[in-house]
Amino acid sequence: MAHDLVLIVDMVEEMAQEIVEGKMADIVGMVEEMVEGLVEEMMEMVEGTVEGMMEHAVGMVGEMMEHAVGMVEEMMEHAVGMVEGMMEHAVGMVEEMMETVEGMMEHAVGKVEERMGSTGDMTVLEHEEVVLQMMGYVVGMVGEMMEHAVGMVEEMMEHVVGKVEERMGLREGMAEERMKLVVVMAEKLALAEDNQY
What we know:
The chain is mainly α.
């Protein structure tokens, strides 16, 4: 575009020199009108191009943001699904452990009852103490497992959030770069217009 303007200016200068040398006033007036018309046409063309470019850039940024939002939503759905799966797995494990513990408790109670029945050397208090010890052991194990499951879920959520933030950062960076490029091009075109006056 700027190159075309330079060519036109050169052409006009040559014509103007010929006109001055030949003192052809009519041709001078005609050339001035022609140049004015050309400059006006080119200005309109440049303005239209800049407007078109800005509209295109805005549209692209909008599309990119929609795409990014869609990706984040997909990733969040995937993450929620994974967390739900992990929670189900953790609950299943706890339920299994509780069943095992119940079996162990029954076995221990049976042993205690057996001893109390056979020898009678174990008092009711001792029996309760054994049961309480086992309950404490079981509760501790279940608590540890729940902490482990919660820790795993938290780690996964942090990982997912980190990935989402990383991707959003990349998308924003790309959108900013494109906008900068459009602005630079628009400024160059504006400078080319200013140089004509």
